Amino acid sequence: MGIDPIGASSEGASLYELIREDIIEGRLAANERLVVTDLARRHGTSTNPVREALQLLRGEGFVTFVANRGARVRPIDQDFVRDIYEIGVLIEPALTRWFVNMATSEDIAELERIQGLIEENNFADTLRHSELDTAFHTVMYQRHYNRHAAELWWKHREVLRAVSRRFNFTLARRAAILREHRELIAHIKAGNADEAGELISRHVEGSGRHVLEQMRARNAARAG
Amino acid sequence: MGIDPIGASSEGASLYELIREDIIEGRLAANERLVVTDLARRHGTSTNPVREALQLLRGEGFVTFVANRGARVRPIDQDFVRDIYEIGVLIEPALTRWFVNMATSEDIAELERIQGLIEENNFADTLRHSELDTAFHTVMYQRHYNRHAAELWWKHREVLRAVSRRFNFTLARRAAILREHRELIAHIKAGNADEAGELISRHVEGSGRHVLEQMRARNAARAG
DNA sequence: ACGCGATAAATCGTACATTGTTTGTGCAAA
DNA sequence: TTTGCACAAACAATGTACGATTTATCGCGT
């Protein structure tokens, strides 16, 4: 599964996860107030668990606090998404280069298996594609010695997955994803760490650009 | 046994900040249990504020949780420091390149002013040097459009400052710092973004290596 | 020395009190 | 009628206290 240092996922469907999903998925609007008693009533608990969940979310950056005025939903807007992608462009190549130098034949087989499923699915089920794509990159990053960087990537990934779930892949983007994945596997097999890193850089940047275009288009549609 | 009861009861600073400082500064040992009732008694509050502070720290990665077993201090060990520095090596050059292209003459004057204070102090007061050095880099990063990256840098910086406070600068490191800062200002003046980025990469890596060597030496001394 | 059960301790959830903030109302003045 | 403002009531955040449930500890008998 994921890369989870703080023990969040050990609790099944915790209050933290529920509220977090509501924020990421957009069910809670940007800057919306998070009233403790309301959330407690809605989830059938007392206020204390809600308060602790909100503090946890605050620490992770999903919620903002003002003293004596409570919590609000941090907007998952274009700037937020752009920031995350740009950090990915800087970090993921380094993770990839390390993986290329450490990859076993089992790793490569696993990547090819997942890539096979991705091509088999061929974006028919977009949710499934998203999961497979995440799995693909997780194979590469999950064993990296820099746990901090891997965790950071995972946190960002969860946000981006939720955001991009609202959109469809353009045909051009679909083709690019498949092509780049195949090319990446080839680089890994050949042990070309730098080329793989370069490719990932373009891959992440392309993915970010794609999502941002979609967000922009939808915003324009909503405004006009 | 850890906590200084004087600093603990000081007014103004929140419970979160107090516990956080105790972790970063090393007054709370690695993996030490954080018992809610103890902390509450020690800080003269009830348990609820402590619980919320711990969740906040959990979200920021300073504390780990296991269900029904409470919180523990995440170790600020060599791996942790190395991870943070490596992320800095990846991110700071990008922040620097942007700054070089955006720097005004006021920015450069401010950098030269701080650099003057640094050279004037010349590591006589190491704490002051640490503050000035942080100020120097803050001038470069604080206005970056990628708020996420800037915040990430700041959070890391706070940890590293606390860690390196335990050590002294070697003569070689002192010389390198002054030389690289001067060289950096020259690159900024000339508008050489790429050279400045390259230099910052080396600067951060050198700084990280220096701190890690010190940690290693102290660990070895403690063991033998 | 090694389970094993009783006891202590700590976490987690609930209920309540206090304090600070927001909102709505009445009233006077423009 | 509208605007500005004081003031009070409702509301919500923050802090305290306590009971329930889970985990850790320790003494005891084999």
Strand arrangement in the largest pleated sheet of chain A: 1-3-2
Question: Total strand count of chain A, please?
Answer: 3
Task: State the helical fraction of chain A.
Answer: over 70%
- Structural class by secondary-structure content of chain A: mainly alpha
Overall average residue pLDDT of chain A: 93
Percent strand of chain A equals: under 5%
Oligomer: homodimer
Spell out the helices and strands of chain A N to C: HEHHEEHHHHHH
Largest interface chains and counts: A-B, 33 and 32 residues
Termini of chain A, distance in Å? Answer: 42 Å
Radius of gyration of chain A equals 19 Å
Q: Indicate the overall shape of chain A.
A: globular
For the sheet with most strands of chain A, the description reads: 3 strands, antiparallel
Low-confidence stretches of chain A: none
Number of continuous helical runs of chain A: 9
Task: Please provide a written account of the structure.
2 copies of one chain form a homodimer. Chain A is globular and about 60 Å long. Chain A has 9 helices and 3 strands. Chain A starts with 14 loop residues before the first helix and ends with a helix. Chain A has a 3-stranded antiparallel sheet. In chain A, a hairpin with a 3-residue loop joins β2 and β3. The interface between A and B is medium-sized, with 33 and 32 residues. Chain A binds a DNA duplex (30 and 30 nucleotides) through α3.
Task: Tag the structure with descriptive keywords.
mainly alpha, 224 residues, DNA-binding, 3 strands, globular, three-stranded antiparallel β-sheet, 9 helices, homodimer
